[in-house]
Amino acid sequence: MKKSMAALMLAVSVLFTGCSAAGNGSKGVEDIQKIKDRGVLKVGVKVDIPKYGYKDPKTGKIEGLEIDIAKQIAKKILGDENKIEMQAVTSKTRGPLLDSGEADLIAATFTITEERKKSYNFSEPYIKDGVGLLVKKSAGFKSYKDLDGKKIGVAQSATSKKALQEEANKLGIKVQFLEFGSFPEIKAALDSGRVDCFSVDTSILSGYLDDNTEILPDRFSLQEYGIASKKTNTELAKVVNETIADMKKSGELDKLIKKWGIN
Q1: Are 115 and 77 in contact (CB under 8 A)?
Q2: Most CB within 10 Å of its CB: which of 34, 39, 75, 140?
Q3: What is the pTM of this model?
Q4: Taking the domain 130-223, which CATH number applies?
Q5: Into which family does the record put it (predicted)?
Q6: Which residues are bridge partners to 131 per DSSP?
Q7: What does each C-alpha distance from 191 to 86, 91, 156, 185 come to in angstroms?
C-alpha cells in the first residue's frame, strides 16, 4: 500500500511539473501572439545618436542602424517592417520601459554585460566597439593620460564610466565624472567648457565630430551591443536572434553598417 501511495504521489508530481513547464514554454509564445494581435512591435530606440538612432529635425523621421534592424524584426513577426512603434529612450529609461512592458524590445546602443544579462535577454551582438574620448582640438590633449585632473562627461547608467575609471587607476591619474541624461547634453557641455572630454563608444562619438573636435587614439573596454527583451519573453528573444543571424548570414547587416558609416 505504501509503495502504491508513493508511486501515486510521484505520478502527480511529474504531472504538475510537466504542466508547469508547458505553461512556462507557452508564455513566450503568448507574448509573440500579443504582438501579432496588437499589430505593432513596440521598440525603445535612441533619437540622439547619429548613425544608430537619430531623429532628423528636418523630416521628423527616426533613422539609423538600430532602426533598420528593428524593422527587420517587425517584418519577421508581422510581415511588414512598417508595423513598428518607436519610443525614444535614454540610457537611464530603457531598462524600466522593458520592465513595465511599455516596450517589447530595446534597440538603443544597449551594451551587453553579465550583470545586465541577469535582468534581460540579450541578442547576439550586432556591433563591437570600444570606449573613446572626444576632446577639443584646441585643448592639445594627445592621450587619456593628458586628462589627469580633468572633467569627463558620460551618460547616466552607461558602462563607459567604469571602463574609464579602471583605466585611470592603471595609469595613476585622477579624473572627475559628470553624468548627463543625453549625448547632446554632453556635447554641449564639451563645447561650453563644462567638461574637458565627452566619452562613450567610439562609433557614437564619430557622429558628434565637428571642425573643433577630435577623437583621441585611446580605446578602452570592448563594448558589444545587443537587442534586449524582457527575461520572460523567451520566444521573442529567439525570433530576434534568428533575425540577426539571418542578417549576418545574408550580408545584410554588413551592408547596413557600411550604409550608416559605422566603423
Answers
A1: no
A2: 75
A3: 0.78
A4: 3.40.190.10
A5: Belongs to the bacterial solute-binding protein 3 family.
A6: 201, 220
A7: 30, 22, 19, 10
Mean pLDDT of 225-233: 96
Kindly write down the DSSP assignment for every residue of 182-247, as one continuous string. SHHHHHHHHHHTS-SEEEEEHHHHGGG--TTEEE-S--EEEEEE--EEETT-HHHHHHHHHHHHHH
The 10s digit of each residue's pLDDT in 76-99 is 999 999 999 999 999 889 999 999
What's the grid cell of residue 229? Answer: 527583451
Ranges of each domain in the chain? 27-126+226-259, 130-223
pLDDT tens-digit readout, 123-146: 999 999 999 999 999 999 999 999
- CA-based nearest residue to 89, from 74, 71, 104, 76: 104
Which cell numbers hold the place of 83? 508595423
Which pLDDT value is given to residue 222?
Answer: 85
Residue from 80, 100, 79, 78 nearest 89 by CA = 100
User: CA 178, CA 186: separation in Å to the nearest integer?
Assistant: 9
> What is the rounded CA–CA span in Å between residue 182 and residue 46?
10
CA distances from 208 to 80, 117, 162, 204, 215 (A): 32, 29, 22, 7, 10
Question: Which of these CATH numbers, 3.40.50.280, 1.20.910.10, 3.30.420.40, 3.40.190.10, describes 27-126+226-259?
Answer: 3.40.190.10
What sign for the dihedral angle of Cα 193, 213, 138, 159? Answer: positive
Element of type H or E holding 132: strand 127-136
CA distance linking residue 157 with residue 154, whole number of Å? 9
249, three cell numbers: 548570414
Question: Beta strands 213-215 and 127-136: pairing type?
Answer: antiparallel
Are 76 and 242 in contact, with CB atoms under 8 Å apart? Answer: yes
Q: Is the pLDDT of residue 263 over 80?
A: no
